[in-house]
C-alpha cells in the first residue's frame, strides 16, 4: 500500500497528515498567528491555515471527519507521493454538516472520483503541497435529465388472428412453434426525466421476427392472388421451415421510474435544499408505442432429400412494409420484461391471413 506523506486543506483551511519530518522539509516557515497545529500521536499532525479567528470559527459548519473518510477511498490510487489530492466542492455544501450534495468531476480531470492528483501551483499557496478545498459553479451530473443506454430484447414471438386467437386452435398451416420463434431487438435508447418519477424512454433500433412453423413441411408460395401455405412432398424429410422479417424501429415509452429519488434537507444556517439520489435497483414500469419499417424478409427451409439441403427464398411475401403497436415494459435492477403487440396486420389485407404479430421476453 502506497504511503501518503502529507495532506493539506486550504480555502478556508488546510489539513496536513503524516510524517512531521517530511512537512518540515517541504513547507515554508509559518508564523504562529496564521496556523493551528493539532498533534495526533507521534507521527501525525493536522495544520490549519487561517487568516483570523472568524475564519477559524467558520470551520464549525464543515464535517472534517467526512473529508478524511473520502480521502481514504482513493489513497491507494495515488502513484506518485509527490502529488496532492484536491477535493472539489461545486457549491461549498458537500461537507457542510446536515447537507449532502453530489459533486461532478472537474472538467480537466480524467477520473470519475471527487479527487484529482496534481502539484499545487496556486499563488496563494506557492511552494506548498497538500489537500485543498476548492469551489466551482458546475452543476451535478444529470441522470436526472437524459441518460443513454443500449438495450437488447430477447424473447419469443407469435401472432393472433382476427378473433384474437392463436392459429393453432384451428390447425392452420401457418401455425408457429413458440419455442424457436425468436424475437431479437437491438436498441439505442435515451431516458429523459420529466418530473418526480415520470420519465420518457425514446430511441430506435432494429428487430427481427422469426416465425418457425409448427409443421416443418410448411412452404410459402407467393401468387398473384395472394399467399398460399402448402406442404412439401412426403418423400422429402423436412427439418425446419420459418419466415423472417426485419424492421428498423423508433419507440417512445412514458414510464414511472422510481430510481429517481430526492429529499429536502436544511443546513446549519437554515437554508433549505433538495438533494438527489439515483438508485439502479428501483422499480420501473412503462407503456408506450413504436413504429417500424421493414428492411428485409425471407423464408428458409431445411430438409433432406438424400442429401442435407438448405433453401432461402428472399421475397416480400406480401408483408406490410410498416408495423406499429404498443409496448409494455416493467423492470427492477438491470432486468426488464417487455411485451409488444402490432396493431396493424402482418400481411397486406386480402393477400394473406389476418394476423397481428406479438412478442414478449426480457430486456437486458
Q: Helical percent range?
A: under 10%
Strands of the biggest beta sheet: in what spatial order?
7-8-9-12-15-17-18-19
Query: What proportion strand?
Result: over 45%
Give the overall shape, derived from the CA principal axes.
elongated
Total of helices: 3
Rg of Cα set: 33 Å
Work out the oligomeric state of the chains in this entry: single chain
Which runs of at least 5 residues are low in confidence (pLDDT < 50)?
1-30, 99-141
The major beta sheet can be summarized as: 8 strands, antiparallel, barrel
N-to-C CA distance: 38 Å
The total count of strands amounts to 19
Order of helices and strands: EHEEHHEEEEEEEEEEEEEEEE
Report on this model:
With 364 residues, the protein is mostly beta strands. 6% of the residues lie in helices and 48% in strands. The chain has helices at 20-26, 53-57, 64-74, and strands spanning 14-15, 35-40, 44-49, 84-89, 115-118, 131-135, 146-160, 182-195, 198-212, 218-223, 226-231, 237-257, 260-266, 272-278, 283-304, 308-314, 322-332, 335-342, 356-363. The strands form 5 sheets. Strands 7-8-9-12-15-17-18-19 form an 8-stranded antiparallel beta barrel. A hairpin with a 3-residue loop joins strand 2 and strand 3. The longest helix is centred in the first third of the chain and has 11 residues, at 64-74. The protein starts with 13 loop residues before the first strand and ends with a strand. Residues 1-30 and 99-141 have low confidence and may be disordered.
Could you give the topology of this structure?
Blueprint: E1 14-15, H1 20-26, E2 35-40, E3 44-49, H2 53-57, H3 64-74, E4 84-89, E5 115-118, E6 131-135, E7 146-160, E8 182-195, E9 198-212, E10 218-223, E11 226-231, E12 237-257, E13 260-266, E14 272-278, E15 283-304, E16 308-314, E17 322-332, E18 335-342, E19 356-363
Parallel strand pairs: 4-6
Antiparallel strand pairs: 1-6, 2-3, 4-5, 7-8, 7-19, 8-9, 9-12, 10-11, 12-15, 13-14, 15-16, 15-17, 17-18, 18-19
